[in-house]
Design brief:
The complex is a heterodimer of chains A (111) and B (114). Chain A has 111 residues and is an all-beta fold. Helices cover 0% and strands 55% of the residues of chain A. Chain A is globular. The mean pLDDT of chain A is 94. At the A-B interface, strand 4, strand 5 and strand 10 of A face strand 5, strand 9 and strand 10 of B.
Chain lengths: 111, 114
């Protein structure tokens, strides 16, 4: 089955700096890669996703890049703000199938 | 759009009793719903995949007789934790699939078994 590894497990940045979280996956058939933000005690919220037919996607301060050959994808957050502090999860799936999640990254943005 | 509700949001029960958790997609039909379990400071672990009108598919290591899943309609799936024990205490989250890609999560149910 699919295995998703996520790094780093914790990340502390200064407000205004950029944050990068990286994930690798094992199943070359995976073609959907979402990123979720989870605040303490709350549901994971889909913040951005990418499908395997594109290499990069951007939405305001958030971007995701995908390297299918290397089987890794990354989340980039620019101009971080304290409200970006949360746990971020990457995931991978084949079309229509279950999501396999990475271990999570606890992002702390210091004001 | 793509709102998923879950009820109850928290429940405390005694060891040996059963607890039912409901997951509803409020503004879309979900042919597939998923049930996850999340321990503190850990990732989400898929327990089972539920398709409307058919038996759920359980992940390895998940006891299907203990975690009963019923997907009665395109907007409702239920998870029943039978004969709950303290080790079943966890955060249970459902998600509903709106299309072949996207999953939207419910707010979760915190179960505490005393």
């Amino acid at each position: 089955g699919e295995n998703v590894e996520q790094h780093p497990s914790t990340l502390s940045v200064q407000e205004g700096d950029s944050a990068v979280i990286k994930c690798t996956y094992s199943d070359s058939a995976s073609n959907y890669f979402p990123w979720y933000k989870q605040e303490l005690g709350k549901r994971p919220q889909l913040i951005i996703d990418i499908r395997s037919n594109v290499g990069e996607k951007k939405d305001q301060r958030i971007a995701v890049t995908l390297n299918k050959t290397a089987k890794h994808f990354s989340l980039h957050i620019t101009e971080t703000q304290p409200e970006d502090s949360a746990v971020y999860f990457c995931a991978a799936s084949r079309q229509g199938n279950m999501l396999t999640f990475g271990g999570g990254t606890r992002l702390m943005v210091k004001p | 759009g793509a709102v998923v509700s879950q009820h109850p949001s928290w429940v405390i029960c005694k060891s040996g009793t059963s607890v039912k958790i409901e997951c509803r997609s409020l503004d879309f039909q979900a042919t597939t719903m998923f049930w996850y379990r999340q321990f503190p400071k850990q990732s989400l672990m898929l327990m089972a995949t539920s398709n409307e009108g058919s038996k759920a598919t359980y992940e390895q290591g998940v006891e299907k007789d203990k975690f009963l899943i019923n997907h009665a309609s395109l907007t409702l799936s239920t998870l029943t934790v039978t004969s709950a024990h303290p080790e079943d205490s966890s955060f249970y989250i459902c998600s509903a699939s709106r299309n072949v890609y996207e999953q939207y999560f419910g707010p979760g149910t915190r179960l505490t078994v005393t």
